[in-house]
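User
Take a look at the entry that follows and flag anything odd:
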Amino acid sequence: MRFTPDPLQFWARVAPDRLALMRGETSWTYGRLNAAVQESADALIAQGLGAGEHVSLEFAPAHAFSFVIAFHALQRIGLLPVPIGASLPAEERQALRKRAWVDLALTSESSDTERGIEEGPVLGVHVPPPTDVGPRLLRRLDMPAALCFTSGTSGEPRGAVLTHGNFFWSALASARNLGVRPGDLWLSCLPLHHVGGLSILTRSAYYGSAVLLHDRFDADRVLDAIDREGVTLISLVPPLLERLLRARGGRMFPTSLRAALVGGGPAPRELLEEAAELRLKALPTYGLTEAASQVTTLSPRVWPAGLDTAGRPLPFVRVEIRDERGLAVPRGQEGEIVISGPTVMAAYFEDREKEAAAWDGRWLKTGDVGVWDPAGRLVVLDRRSDRVVVGGENVSPVEIERVLSGHPAIAEIGIVGVPAGSWGHEIAAAVVLRPGASLDLEDLRRHAAESLAGFKLPRRLRILPELPRSASGKLLRDALRDLFRSEVPQEETA
């Protein structure tokens, strides 16, 4: 199969009164959503954009409807959506726009409406007259559908070009694992600009099922939606699952909630077992942006067996554990996780050097270390070498070091992540001061807040006479982590 229908147009024709989106007291059918998408597509055409141009989506959570409409509208007329977090500092967003060759930025900074798309500035480029822009009833599976950023081991975000085929096969694979029911309602409380939130939108559109949008995670609101609004599926990161269980207070979950996907980092087995005791099928999953979200997921058919794993590869996805020579290793032996299949991205955007190192057009090297358990399920041992997972967000120590090294009191700095329970990690900074200088944690955080998102800010600080380094001058991050492990962790925060 080389083509797939525009899913919104399909369901608007087949089942126009079927529920598509909910947010608060507002609900949209497929018929209404399709009409809004077409209206926004027409507005985009009027901007004079040409087919294939890149448009960033920078909508605050309160404008989730606008994000959904704009995302589908861009795809309908052959423009490439570039989701960017609206909460990122302006300097960081501008840098991502530049890297993605964004021609137009759509934002919600001056909007108080829920419909349509809000215009953003043209970023200093000439916008040509319309070229081959218009509604497409069929989509080529090999055509780009979104350019999604993710953090890489170098400390710079990588732009993964995901195709319509990537999203389609990912939706089909997830359906084979979880099943699809006509009344499914998937609660989305993850950022829509991340592949986790984006995959909820795309797979639900292909299924013809509904999405309940929450602006942010609020445990009481989520529990009320589960109990009163018939939520059947939900995606969470480990700290959100922990908050949900705390708020539940030992009460059983309704059987209408079929499963909760738990990704964004390893989930403690104790947390998943606690969920199981409350009749919640919390299914650990391993995935990455470059594979349109899920790669492996524990099957609900074997749950609760395998809670200390990330499950088996989803249908159509191949996973191998390879040694340093690139050879597949047997079960029980550790190695690098490599993946292949129709969900794997088309390319890294304008990054041929990194692409050549990780992606040969068939197999993608994830940089993650894993092992097969005796039942053939994947156990993820480490995340990427220098990457830290903070509440489901991928954080690069190199990026933070680059920002903080500009502080006038700092001569040298090393950043590591230290374990913080279900939150994954928290950021810890070790510094060598310049002669006569002084520094405290709040001063460091204020400096960093000018350029970094809140989850990237250090929460611990150690001032050292020198940083541990190897004979070649390489920073020894393991030695730094040991310095912080004996300390009492800070309280977990959102």
Notes: Residues 110-131, 489-494 have pLDDT under 50 and may be disordered. The two ends are 44 Å apart (CA to CA).
